[in-house]
Automatic annotation (TrEMBL):
This is Opioid growth factor receptor conserved region-domain-containing protein. GO terms for molecular function: opioid growth factor receptor activity. Residues 261-271 have a biased composition (Polar residues). Belongs to the opioid growth factor receptor family. The keyword Signal does not apply. One of its GO terms (cellular component) is membrane. It comes from the Eukaryota. Residues 249-271 are annotated as: Disordered. It holds the Pfam family OGFr_N. Residues 24-218 form the Opioid growth factor receptor (OGFr) conserved domain. Keywords: Receptor.
């Protein structure tokens, strides 16, 4: 499969990028000591859900999250330049400091939850990365429709997944990818050419864990060939894959063909 240059640089840990100790904007922002620009908000104000700060908080503010473009570089910094000239690329020394601070890591997780909600989803488990559809009163169908028709969000998702990897939150990436794949395979949701192309070429490769990247890539190809093999990646399969990883350290699902053949043999033996 074709690997875009930005993905290869990410997988290679940006070998040509030099750390600049003087650049600290991302660390200061996630430490709540700097306001992002141009929106002039601290990270706590963006995450705040109290009535007192109602004009500031962004959860559920779908029009704001769709129309604004500068915030995504601040919420999910990576070691690449973005479209917001008032932000800075993430620096290696910032990564070390941010990963070492549990408060910062929880804030990154909250930013991920904010964007999942925007996309019609919610994080069921921070430990496994399990994702589900947004719960009422959220309208997941309307958010899915927006994701289908607003393709600029596909670039945002690539950035989100890269950032999570940098912050040692890559376990969440598989949860997101497998949720989308399950929706495509079992429910025919989010199953457009644009989303499939972004997922197969970019999103599924935003995993530095080679075993997980290879396993998910093979699973995607199996789903894409469903017309030939009849395979459906079910919600049960999805949950099993993450449960197996929690128990064994590796993603995995039972082979349905082998299971069905075994059940048939048992039934024949009992008659």
């Amino acid at each position: 499969m074709y690997t875009p240059r930005d993905i290869q640089e990410f997988l290679d840990d940006y070998p040509d990028v030099t750390d600049d100790p003087s650049c600290t904007a991302n660390l200061k922002f996630y430490s709540n000591n700097l306001r992002c620009r141009p929106d002039n908000r601290t990270i706590e104000e963006i995450h705040e859900k109290s009535e007192r700060l109602m004009p500031l908080w962004w959860f559920g503010e779908y029009g704001k999250l769709e129309a604004k473009h500068g915030y995504i570089q601040w919420l999910f910094p990576i070691r690449e330049y973005g479209m917001n000239y008032e932000s800075q690329p993430l620096q290696a020394h910032e990564i070390d400091a941010m990963k070492a601070d549990p408060v910062v890591i929880q804030r990154v997780t909250e930013s991920y939850k904010l964007m999942l909600d925007f996309y019609g989803m919610h994080l069921v488990s921070e430990e496994t990365g399990l994702v589900g559809r947004a719960l009422p009163p959220r309208n997941y169908a309307a958010r899915y429709y927006n994701l289908v028709r607003s393709s600029h969000n596909y670039l945002r998702i690539s950035r989100i997944l890269k950032c999570l990897s940098e912050m040692e939150l890559e376990r969440l990436n598989a949860g997101f990818l497998l949720h989308v794949l399950n929706e495509q395979s079992e429910e025919n949701e989010l199953n457009t050419r644009g989303i499939c192309n972004s997922m197969d070429t970019w999103w599924a490769n935003c995993l530095r864990n080679k075993e997980e990247r290879t396993w998910i890539g093979a699973l995607i190809r199996r789903v894409r060939s469903a017309d030939e093999n009849g395979f459906i990646f079910t919600r049960e399969d999805y949950e099993e894959a993450l449960r197996t990883r929690a128990e064994t350290g590796q993603l995995g699902i039972r082979d349905k063909k082998e299971t069905n053949d075994s059940q048939t043999s048992n039934e024949e033996a009992s008659t």
